[in-house]
User: Fold this.
Amino acid sequence: MNEKAEVASQLVRMGRDVFGLDDEERIAGYADEVAEMMQTLSSASLEKTLEPFAPPAKESK
Assistant:
């Protein structure tokens, strides 16, 4: 099983166990999309100035 499939299966389990969702086919479709987005974002390189998070207070001076 590749990383994307592992992440997707974890998301399906979380949808079922944590959120009580019962339409596993629908959850699996969304989980696959989310896993792909997570994989794409984790491999992207961002410039520090383009990151969506504010820098720690020490660095913002």
User: Anything to note?
Assistant: The CA atoms of residues 8 and 31 lie 5 Å apart. The chain has a mean pLDDT of 82.
